[in-house]
């Protein structure tokens, strides 16, 4: 089946890669939704609760700091590196990701080639003025005062640069993802359960626009029936097989 996958990639001119949590579990980052995942241990904090309650903001940041070792020690795996090689070769035009772990950037893919639909947990932003703050700044203030510090520029509320439940999707990123999807002739969804919308709508858009659709995921997805090829395999070995000398 990897031979068929390689044929699709070789024949395509503009490939879009769409990634979900399944590619990063191979780097040791837990899947939030799976049994035993973070959301089965802690209920998600909704955006409106984060905004309304200092106690919820404290809880959200405490969870973030507890998870930091998992994220900061994670390294790109073979799947991330294979995608980076395909971007460098010009075959892959864009990487649309639901992940917040920065591993695509760490693999060497330029920021302008990455569309982060759910944001990025490796830094914070002010919800008022959008000024970026490093996590170290927030953590130092939190440990000193027991609460997250305000924005150093305007005094606004700081939050990880991720999209929480109840928070609006980033308009610019959604537009970039749609444009890339409509321009591709091959859309490869990797490690995503394809149940979280609007993100999961992009494979459908690609297929309806005439692109071939390939799904690589360890388990079945609801979109398997419209895909041209489905591979229930690990992302790393599967994608590595696309590269020369493998």
From TrEMBL:
The active site is at 118 (proton acceptor). The keyword NAD applies. GO terms for molecular function: histone deacetylase activity, NAD-dependent; metal ion binding; NAD+ binding. InterPro entries: DHS-like_NAD/FAD-binding_dom (IPR029035), NAD-dep_sirtuin_deacylases (IPR050134), Sirtuin (IPR003000), Ssirtuin_cat_dom (IPR026590). SUPFAM superfamilies: DHS-like NAD/FAD-binding domain. Residues 1-246 form the Deacetylase sirtuin-type domain. Zn(2+) binds at residues 126, 129, 151, 154. Its EC number is 2.3.1.286. It comes from the Bacteria. Pfam families: SIR2 (PF02146). It is an enzyme of class 2 (transferase). It comes from Candidatus Phaeomarinibacter ectocarpi. This is protein acetyllysine N-acetyltransferase. Keywords: Metal-binding, NAD, Transferase, Zinc.
